[in-house]
Amino acid sequence: MKRRLQKKYIILIVAYSVLLLLVPYVLDYRGHSAHAKHAVQQQRCPDLENTMALWSGIGGGAAGGAGGGGNGTEAAGEDGGIRNDTKIHIYLHATWRTGSSFLGELFNQHPDVFYLYEPMWNMWQALYPGDAASLQGAVRDMMSSLFRCDFSVLRLYAGAANVSTAFVFGWKTNKVICSEPLCAAYSKRDVGLVQGDVCARCPPRDLAELERECRKYRAVVIKDVRVLDVGVLAPLVRDPALNLRVVQLFRDPRAVHNSRLKSKLALVRESIQVLRSKKHADRYRRLLAPGARANRAENYVASAMELICDGWLGDMLLVANAPPWLRRNYMQIRYEDLVLRPVDELRRLYRFSDLPVSPELEKFVLNMTRGRGYSSDKPFLISSRDAKEAIYAWRERLNVEQVNQVEAYCSEVMRQLGYQKRNPDQT
Description:
With 427 residues, the chain is of the alpha/beta class. The protein has helices spanning 2-37, 48-56, 61-66, 100-108, 121-126, 136-147, 155-158, 196-199, 207-214, 234-237, 253-262, 264-275, 281-288, 296-320, 324-327, 335-340, 342-353, 359-368, 387-392, 394-397, 400-409, 411-417; strands at residues 88-93, 113-117, 219-224, 244-250, 330-334.
């Protein structure tokens, strides 16, 4: 009799334990389904308070160098600090497939700019499969060195001690690397795309030579997609020696998603690194479940898109609550505005950067947005595009379910950036 009672108790205990384990998964599944179909994006910014505290600590002497008007050359900011105009440092803050390579090319073409194309790529490859969040400190430290024209940090992730110009900063299309005095193929003063096959014939140069060239330029610009949020840049913004300005590029999330799906195989590794971040690990584990094995590459890319919208929303909230002097060192630009009104946006971009604009640069940006077709067969290649087709291609390439999904979890971002839903009545 006692044995039977013991068995019953054991069965009840086991059943109760199983029930406790199942409830969170059921709730998570229901919440995830509802979120994908109907939910409006919530303002989920778990690190906002910590980062805001970091911003509020940027004051006094530190504010003097970073502050000042981003659209002019005023000698003093609102806080009375003296602006450092001897060297300008600009970070192009973007994410994958937003048109950031095109934005970066506008700086690559400027004769006063030393341009660094995605220098943190080698780090991410070397430290794979390290999660994106844990790499943010290393990304920031590397950026700090690069802005100071110290390229020795590149050797840490190159896998070789002898690193040359034929390895870094998108060298085959980099105007500095492919121009005199490093190479006779081009002149930095001439505006026009660099042909990779021409630059490939340039002799490799030691990084020390590239560092010397870097120090000659008034402006150093880094374009990358591996800073997860603006808050990561706080220690650099507070550094008066850097005079850092941030240009953040946004794009219609549906167009981003369409472009990411087109290049999904090339983006799988970095999508995994984003999803493996501690605060996103639950989503990553769901993708590893046996039922999610089909179309796994597409699932990785789609899930990372949700995190991109969360990051954008966090950035907008952070900047909206930042001090005025800091906001003046921050500029927001939409890809759609850049390609539909290229000359106006180019002038605004250069004015913020304290860079002169020329008729040749205006002609260049106009030609780059008046090409034929949506994109080339190589999606990461910079080329002339049809602006309107690039903007609206998602309407024909995404199905209704994909559009509804993006509009659901990017709803608040779309509202704040002025993107209309395909069905205005949808909530």
